[in-house]
Structures are given as C-alpha cells and as structure tokens.
C-alpha cells in the first residue's frame, strides 16, 4: 500500500505484475508493425484490434497474460483526436476526463457518428453543433481539445503521463485506484491525513510510531489479547480500564499527567474506546503544525514511559514530559532544518527584453487562461531591432486549454502573424520552455500539444524563423496582451502600434 493510504509504500505485487504486463500490451498498440505484434495479430485478432480482442480457451499462456494485463490499458488510455474519423462520439474514450473518458450527455446524434462530424473544417470545432448536442460539461471538455489543420490520424494515448506514453509507475497507480474498493469520500479524507503525517518535521521513528498506533499495532494489553496472548487487559498503570491504544496514550491518568501544560489541547475530548486514528485526524485539523508535532513527540514519550513502568518496573515521575518533548523537537529541527537566514540567497537581478539583430524582427507570444469565463487569451507583439512596435494581436479563444497547449497555440499565432505581414526573418520568443524544446528538437509527441507542434514544424520547414525561450520578466508585454485578450469578446490587430494599456511596458523595454 502507498503511504498516502496508510501503508509504508511497499508495492502490491499482483498489481505491479499487471502493470508490467500492461507495458507489453502498450507496445502491441503503439508499435503495430513490430514482429511480435504482427504474429499475435495473425493468431488471435486478424480482423480487429488488440483492445477488443477476446480471450481464447486455446490461447497460449502469453496471450492469456496479455489479456489479463490489458485491463490497466483500458482504464488509463484515451484517444487523441487528429482527423477524428476513427473515433466514435458515443462509446469511445476520447474526452480528457477520467475515469470514463466518455461523453455523459444523452445520445442525440446517430450512434455511428464520429468526432470528425463535429468539425466545420479541418482543425476547427463546430461550436454551435457541440453546444446544442452536448451537456455543458461535455461541451467544455470537447472544446478544450486542440485540433490540427493537418490530416493527423487519431492516436491512442496514455492519459496519466505528460508524454502520453505508458510508464509502469502510472500504470501501477491506475491499477491501485481501479482495484480499490474503499469509499472515495472517506479515502480522500484519510489520504490527506496520511500525507500530512509523512510531511511532519519529526523523527522517522516517531512517524512510524504514530502509524502503528493508528493501525492498532502497538502491543497494548488489549491488542496482545486480540492476538491470542493470554494476559490481563486491565491497564498496568492505573488498574482502572482496559488498556486500548487510546487509553494508553490519551485516557490513562498517567497519560493525562504527561500532557500537563499542553494549553493547545484544551477543549479536545476523546473516549478510551474510540479509534485512535480519528483522534489524530481531529487534532491534526484543530492544531497548528508546530503544536501537532509537539503532540506527536509527547505521545511517543508517553509510550516510552509506559514501557519503562511495564517492563522495567520503574519510571521517572518527576520528568516534565512536555518540556522534554519541546527540547527534543527543537534539537531535531535545528539540526535538520537550519535557520533560513544562514543560507546564502542570491540577489535577484532585473532582466530586460533584448533587441533582435539588425534586419530581424522579434515576436513575443504568451497565453493566459481565464477559468471564470472559460476562455484562453492569446497575446502577440512584434518589434524590430530598434524596439519599435510593428504590430500586435489580442485574440480570445472560447476554449480553456492546458497551459502548455495554450502557449503552443500562441507560438503558432505569432508565426502566422509574422508570415501574413511579411515580417521575416523572425525570432519567436515564448516563456514555455518545454514547448520551445520540443519544437527545436523537431519532436511531435503523442500528447495534445503534439497536435499543435505538428503545424508549427510544418510552417518552420521553409521559413527563416527560429524559436527561442525567454523568461517571463522579458515577456511581460505579451503576457499583458494575453490578459487583455482573456477578458475581451473579439480579436484585435494593431499595425505599427500597440494598445495604450501596454505602451508604458513597451517603453520600459525600449533600448535603441
């Protein structure tokens, strides 16, 4: 079980083996021309695809194993839309929305309708048809998918990796989620608690002590009796109640004495028969992080003193447990997290926009998402070697794209604008480092951004245009234009000028 669900991070070997086999399934799908894929297709699914192939009683152990591992691929994959001709609107998994990836709207169109029927033209969604045929959630999910003007084939991608390629690590996680039978609401609350525990700045041995206590794995007398050990369950310290985990660490008079001076625990009441983990979740929600860390150390020290009494027949009753816990925690934290003021902090230096070479134009592009209005704003500005503005664009798009896709679209718009106005040769600057690296490597990944980089690379093939990365401070004018676009209702183009709202920023960049 993972640490976020109450385990210690050890893998479930059954699910892990399934994720490993799913890797081989992915190779059959992504490399259909390989020898292995062609042999298996000829034997088991000559007229269909691997995803819908049926298990055969006479199939080999290899084939049965692949069918067993295919469940994970089915749970975590979806179609990336290219030309949309091979993906059915109803039934196929193509929306970027786990866990079904399918539309939930009532069926209005014909069941055999493909995604390509939702295009006005290649690369352009029919917004009127989409909003009339689908529920608003489905419509927004559809319009968030980027389209290419090129005739790209539809492609199966792995949703849970940025590269959209299958990795065993994410396949294992999908398998764990798929196999889990726990209530999602309670599981979500407990996930928050476990993550909070493992992030505490306390010694690992105390984290594991709390972890064992939450699972009732401390050797209290009640837990020993449940395990078959013949013993009296009456608390060995107070001789009043059964020694449960909650009683030993919270309800026993000795435990209460150890909490003397803990003002941050005033008002928290908990019964001896209650679940200790629920007590910890309650305290974690009510206490400040520092106070909760002290509380965890105090519980660990309380258990230590209980063991001194039970196994050593002695206990230092004069010890200030709270004071000891605070000193212990301070020493641990000061050793492992020294004061930030002792670190050397590099002074931030102001970064300015740099003029292009003489005879070259520079195009800065940016994109900003507006979740409230479900829009993406595109900003483009073109300047010459003197820093003079040659043109600018603000373009709102009625779709909410991921940041990487939106910035790739902004680069594409910048290239198209420079070509339309014959502002060549051109240097395109963007603060999307990952997208710039993909373009300069000539890579068209199978992710959604790959749909846009395909069009960009096609334009760059025969034009004197280069793409470079620029930090956000040097791209501030384009960012401002993108913010304006995200609030606008229509596109605007300026020639040899820029909006009044960015003139001061342009003058700040001017370095002739």
Automatic annotation (TrEMBL):
<feature type="domain" description="RNase H type-1">
    <location>
        <begin position="366"/>
        <end position="484"/>
    </location>
</feature>
<dbReference type="Pfam" id="PF13456">
    <property type="entry name" value="RVT_3"/>
</dbReference>
<dbReference type="InterPro" id="IPR052929">
    <property type="entry name" value="RNase_H-like_EbsB-rel"/>
</dbReference>
<protein>
    <recommendedName>
        <fullName>Reverse transcriptase zinc-binding domain-containing protein</fullName>
    </recommendedName>
</protein>
<dbReference type="InterPro" id="IPR044730">
    <property type="entry name" value="RNase_H-like_dom_plant"/>
</dbReference>
<dbReference type="GO" id="GO:0004523">
    <property type="term" value="F:RNA-DNA hybrid ribonuclease activity"/>
</dbReference>
<dbReference type="Pfam" id="PF13966">
    <property type="entry name" value="zf-RVT"/>
</dbReference>
<dbReference type="InterPro" id="IPR012337">
    <property type="entry name" value="RNaseH-like_sf"/>
</dbReference>
<dbReference type="InterPro" id="IPR026960">
    <property type="entry name" value="RVT-Znf"/>
</dbReference>
<dbReference type="InterPro" id="IPR002156">
    <property type="entry name" value="RNaseH_domain"/>
</dbReference>
<feature type="domain" description="Reverse transcriptase zinc-binding">
    <location>
        <begin position="189"/>
        <end position="256"/>
    </location>
</feature>
<dbReference type="GO" id="GO:0003676">
    <property type="term" value="F:nucleic acid binding"/>
</dbReference>
<dbReference type="InterPro" id="IPR036397">
    <property type="entry name" value="RNaseH_sf"/>
</dbReference>
């Amino acid at each position: 079980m993972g640490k976020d669900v109450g385990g210690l991070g050890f893998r479930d070997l059954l699910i892990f083996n399934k994720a490993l086999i799913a890797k081989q399934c992915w190779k059959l799908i992504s490399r259909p021309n390989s020898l292995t894929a062609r042999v298996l297709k000829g034997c088991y699914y000559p007229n269909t695809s691997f995803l819908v192939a049926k298990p055969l009683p006479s199939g080999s152990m290899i084939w049965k194993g692949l069918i067993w591992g295919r469940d994970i691929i089915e749970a975590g994959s979806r179609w990336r839309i290219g030309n949309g001709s091979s993906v059915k609107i109803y039934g196929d998994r193509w929306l970027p929305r786990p866990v079904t990836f399918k539309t939930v709207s009532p069926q209005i169109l014909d069941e055999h309708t493909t995604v390509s029927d939702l295009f006005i033209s290649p690369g352009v969604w029919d917004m009127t048809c989409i909003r009339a045929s689908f529920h608003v959630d489905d419509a927004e999910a559809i319009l968030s998918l980027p389209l290419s003007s090129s005739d790209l084939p539809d492609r199966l991608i792995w949703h849970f990796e940025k590269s959209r390629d299958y990795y065993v690590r994410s396949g294992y996680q999908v398998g764990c989620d798929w196999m889990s039978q726990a209530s999602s609401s309670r599981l979500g609350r407990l996930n928050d608690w476990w993550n909070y525990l493992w992030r505490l700045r306390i010694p690992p041995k105390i984290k594991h002590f709390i972890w064992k206590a939450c699972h009732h794995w401390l050797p209290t007398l009640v837990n020993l009796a449940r395990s078959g050990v013949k013993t009296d369950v009456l608390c060995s310290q107070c001789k009043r109640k059964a020694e449960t985990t909650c009683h030993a660490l919270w309800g026993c008079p000795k435990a209460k004495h150890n909490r003397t001076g803990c003002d941050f625990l005033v008002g928290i009441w908990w019964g001896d028969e209650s679940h200790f983990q629920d007590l910890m979740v309650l305290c974690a929600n009510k206490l400040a992080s520092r106070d909760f860390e002290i509380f965890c150390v105090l519980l660990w020290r309380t258990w230590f003193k209980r063991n001194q009494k039970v196994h050593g027949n002695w206990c230092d009753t004069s010890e200030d447990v709270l004071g000891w816990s605070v000193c212990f925690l301070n020493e641990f934290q000061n050793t492992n997290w020294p004061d930030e003021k002792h670190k050397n902090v590099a002074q931030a230096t102001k970064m300015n926009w740099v003029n292009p070479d003489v005879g070259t134009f520079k195009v800065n592009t940016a994109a900003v998402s507006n979740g409230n209005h479900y829009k993406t704003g595109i900003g483009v500005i073109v300047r010459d070697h003197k820093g003079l503005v040659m043109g600018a664009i603000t373009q709102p798009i009625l779709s909410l794209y991921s940041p990487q896709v939106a910035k790739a679209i902004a680069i594409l718009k910048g290239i198209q604008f420079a070509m339309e106005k014959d502002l060549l040769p051109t240097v395109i600057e963007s603060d999307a480092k990952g997208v710039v690296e993909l373009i300069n490597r000539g890579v068209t990944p199978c992710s959604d951004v790959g749909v846009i980089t395909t069009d960009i690379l096609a334009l760059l093939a025969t034009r004197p245009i280069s793409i470079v990365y620029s930090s956000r401070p040097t791209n501030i004018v384009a960012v401002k234009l993108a913010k304006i676009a995200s609030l606008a209702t229509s596109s605007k183009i300026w020639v040899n000028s820029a909006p009044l709202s960015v003139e001061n920023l342009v003058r700040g960049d001017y370095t002739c």
